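Tutorial handout. Part one gives the primary structure; part two gives the three-dimensional structure as tokens.
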Amino acid sequence: MFPDWDASMARQAEALGGLVRARLGAGPQRVLDCSCGIGTQAIGLARAGHRVTGSDLSPAAVARAAAEAAARGVVLPVTAADMRALPFRTAAFDVVVCADNSLPHLLTSDDVRAALVGMRRVLREDGLLVLSVRDYDGIRAAHPASAPPQVSTTAEGRAITFQLWHWHEDGEHYDLEHFQLVPDGDGWAVRVRRSAYWALTRRQLTDAVLDAGFTDVGWREPESSGFFQPVLTARRARR
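Part two.
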């Protein structure tokens, strides 16, 4: 999905790492990426010197994250885990990252709260939560039916990806179809992935984070953070 994945990893790590440095100091920090996928943020942060652990609901994704990290000379411990039931000890991390619009995969208030309460539990006192989501304030106002196509280079040649969005009647949830066209002989093969999202606004997510026991909630826009999505940061309150 990225024209240059390694360059994107480095850019995202610098942006997220800058937010961490501004709040916790130079580090290195103990970081949990609880929605690591194939490792885009986790590998970048590990290459920047942080002690990163990756977890994700998908066993295949975390296996690939570990393999991609090893191929780049990085140690990345990983485990397959649901972010609503993180299998880590209390106060094990300085930072919990949940990036790239992962939290909105949870479709109910109870599930979102369970995830956030769990993230708070595994953070040390005054530890940092870092969440990134799509700009759903603008999206909810427009209810777009699609996202712009992207062109990237893969081992098979150039690939084209685009998305179709099917909104529910409540105006907050939508089903996403992700299409990828890849070269196939003289033509194209089409790969389709489907998922559902809850388009959480800043206000909704801020309220959920506060309700889960965090404090010092703030938002950074891409123009100031350098990250490609709006980023929420919050602290686990001291006792």
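Part three, for discussion. The radius of gyration is 18 Å. The chain has a mean pLDDT of 95.
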